[in-house]
Amino acid sequence: MSQRTLVILKPDAVARGLIGEIIGRIERKAGWTITAIELRTLDRDTLQTHYAEHVGRPFYAPLLDFMSAAPSVVLVVEGERVIEGLRTLAGPTDPIAAAPGSIRGDFGTIVRENLIHASDSEESAERELKIFFPGLV
Ligand code: RTP
Ligand code: MG
């Protein structure tokens, strides 16, 4: 089943010079295509909408500070079961719990600065793609 997902290479990935490495891993996966890509500093309004599910959690304010402080790379990736596949490629939220071979497992440091966001379900992908790429049909 071909799907579309929203991926964000977070400010730590850009600052550490890891975007080529991460994009390379996505490109090497057979059958997946990057159909949009942009370097973008995310504003707080956009991030509040994106992270609405986390309002009130203790990590919410520092997460918004981190995500708005420097440029990210936002991408649309299309392909076979790409939503589940990108979550697998990223690894679990906490880099210490993430297995080597996953992006977070190989390069992650602390839980907030975990390099990559990928939509976690079809519903999230649909919602998030509209937030970051409203012109997409
Ligand atoms: P994401 O939404 O960024 O793809 O990551 P995720 O689903 O694996 O994690 P989620 O639970 O949705 O959390 C969103 C982001 O918030 C930061 N976070 N910090 N305890 C903490 O300090 C903490 N917990 C989460 C991470 O940047 C996480 O990716
Ligand atoms: Mg999430």
Topology of this structure?
Blueprint: E1 2-9, H1 11-15, H2 19-28, E2 32-40, H3 44-50, H4 60-68, E3 72-80, H5 82-90, H6 103-107, E4 116-118, H7 122-132
Antiparallel strand pairs: 1-3, 1-4, 2-3
The structure holds ribavirin triphosphate (RTP) and magnesium ion (MG).
CATH architectural arrangement: 2-Layer Sandwich
- Which molecules other than protein and nucleic acid are bound? ribavirin triphosphate, magnesium ion
Across the major sheet, the strand order is 2-3-1-4
What does the overall shape look like?
globular
Through-space gap between termini = 18 Å
Give the ordered list of helices and strands: EHHEHHEHHEH
Could you give the count of β-strands? 4
Fraction of residues in β-strands: 15-25%
CA gyration radius, whole angstroms: 14 Å
Tally of contiguous helical segments: 7
Name given to the CATH homologous superfamily: Nucleoside diphosphate kinase-like domain
Instruction: Give me the secondary-structure category.
Output: alpha+beta
The name of the CATH topology is Alpha-Beta Plaits
The tally of domains stands at 1
The averaged pLDDT comes out at 97
Give helix % range. Answer: 40-55%
Largest beta-sheet details: 4 strands, antiparallel
CATH class: Alpha Beta
- Poorly predicted segments: none
Cofactor: Mg(2+)
Family: Belongs to the NDK family.
Protein name: Nucleoside diphosphate kinase
Function: Major role in the synthesis of nucleoside triphosphates other than ATP. The ATP gamma phosphate is transferred to the NDP beta phosphate via a ping-pong mechanism, using a phosphorylated active-site intermediate.
